[in-house]
Each structure stands twice: as C-alpha cells, then as structure tokens.
Amino acid sequence: MDALGHTPAACRAREILDRVGGKWSLSVISHLGADTKRFTELNRGIEGISHRMLTVTLRDLERDGIVSRTVYPVMPPRVEYTLTPVGHTLFDLVSGLVTWAEGHLDDIDAARAAYDARAE
Fold first, then answer.
1. Which of 6, 32, 52, 85 is the most buried if burial means most Cβ atoms within 10 Å?
2. Structure pTM?
3. Mapping DSSP to helix (H, G, I), strand (E, B) and coil, where does residue 7 land?
C-alpha cells in the first residue's frame, strides 16, 4: 500500500481500465466483437481514427492480450486482428456499454440541452 492507501493491484487495475476504457480501444473492441478484421476494415469502420492511432491502439491491445494479430506470408502481406478469449470477455461488457449509450442518446441530448440552458 502506498502513502495514499492504494494497493499495487488497484494501481495496476487503474492502468488497465485507462487502456481499455479509452475512446479508441472501446471502438476497436466493439468492431472486433463480431469477427476477425483486417487493418483497413477497422480503419474504415471506426470513424475519426487515424492510421497511426489505430496502429498504436492495436499494439497496446495486443500487448495486453486482448487482441491477437495474425500475419499471413503472402504478397502483399495480409494481417488480421481478432479478439482473444480474454478480449471476448471484455467485448461482452463493451457491447453492453455501447447498447446503453445508443439507447440513451435522446435522454443525454435532453439533459445536455437543459444544462446548457441553465448555464446561460
């Protein structure tokens, strides 16, 4: 335990939550939930993500054992990404979060409008 009362496990869990809870990680996990995809499919399917940010996100998720990368020795090289068994358990949680967000868009828009009206 450190001076603030945090255990090493809590600090490591926070680090992992920061990674998988990030904007791009959630999108990648969500897109890979249905099936294996190539880099270009992910890049086209995730609105607003840059080539570099997708590369960094996939590497981080691969390092954490959430995404698996397979390179096929063909010309041109073909690379596919899929969720690992651990990644699939995370997908179950992520898909619930995405469903919740999509189901509450109107509620959130109304709350934002009311807040903004009060702030003026």
1. 32
2. 0.79
3. coil
